[in-house]
Amino acid sequence: MVRWKLESKNELLVICLFHFLGIAMELFKVHKGSWSYPEEAYTKFFGVPLYSGFMYASVASYMCQAWHWFNLKIDKQPNQFLSILIAALIYFNFFTHHYVYDFRWILFLIVIIVYFKSTILFTPQTTTFKMPVVLSMFLIGFFIWVAENIATFFGAWKYSYQHQNWTVVDSGKVGSWILMSIVSYIIVFELKRVQSKLVVN
After folding, report:
1. Residue 135 belongs to what domain range?
2. Do the Cβ atoms of 185 and 72 come closer than 8 Å?
3. d(CA 157, CA 36)
4. pLDDT for 78-123, tens place per residue?
5. Does pLDDT of 18 surpass 90?
């Protein structure tokens, strides 16, 4: 995609970063028994097939592509340091909630407060529309959950309660994907913010 100029080298770095973050989380979660990859794979590493990292990277790739195709712009973006701090807290909560309190609902509240006034402007063709940033994050998380149901149905991976008979993925996972989409959004947006400053300078 870089060769065909569908993605830039900086965007490739963001996608690779997400692949790394995804693999790290997968290794931890599989070790904790949150889910498993029961079938054989040539590229399995400590029970985790390497392709699993690309599932996270694909979210970042989607956001990078959406930036191009829909000419995305953010109005009233929060402070840069605060945004990065929120992304870090969300990511580490995926690990720490196994040992201490799960702060996801507090993190949701913080995101809503911080991004309450932020809107995203997008232009599919010629008309520009706008949507609250928080709503866009929630919608991305919901549709990833829908895709996850399809993936588990066909056995790409299984949660512990799906080994005997397939059931719908726990609705609580919607929240997890929403949080992950927030991390994706912040990382991609910060890349775009840095790029825009470089262009101006």
Report:
1. 9-200
2. no
3. 6
4. 888 888 899 999 999 989 988 998 899 999 999 999 999 999 998 8
5. no
Domain count, the chain: 1
For 97, list phi and psi in degrees, rounded to 5: -65, -15
| Cβ atoms of residues 19 and 43 within 8 Å | no
List the alpha helices (DSSP H) in 97-132. Answer: 104-114
Q: Tell me 47's DSSP state.
A: T
Q: Which of 36, 160, 40, 28 is closest to 92 using CA atoms? A: 28
Q: What single letter denotes the amino acid at residue 15?
A: I
Residue 4 lies in a domain: no
Instruction: Report the predicted TM-score, pTM, of the whole model to 2 decimal places.
Output: 0.80
Residue 1 placed within a domain? no
Q: What are the structure tokens assigned to 6, written together?
A: 């569908």
Residue 132 lies in a domain: yes
Gyration radius from the chain CA atoms: 18
Predicted confidence (pLDDT) per residue in 183-199, tens digit:
888 888 877 777 666 44
In this structure, which amino acid lies at residue 29? Answer: K
The answer to whether residue 2 is domain-embedded is: no
